[in-house]
Amino acid sequence: MIKLSPALREEPRHQPTPVIPLKQEESLLDWLASTGRLVSYVSIDQSYYEDEDVEEEVEEIMDTYNLETEETEDLEL
Question: Per the confidence metrics, is the pTM higher than 0.90?
Answer without folding.
Answer: no
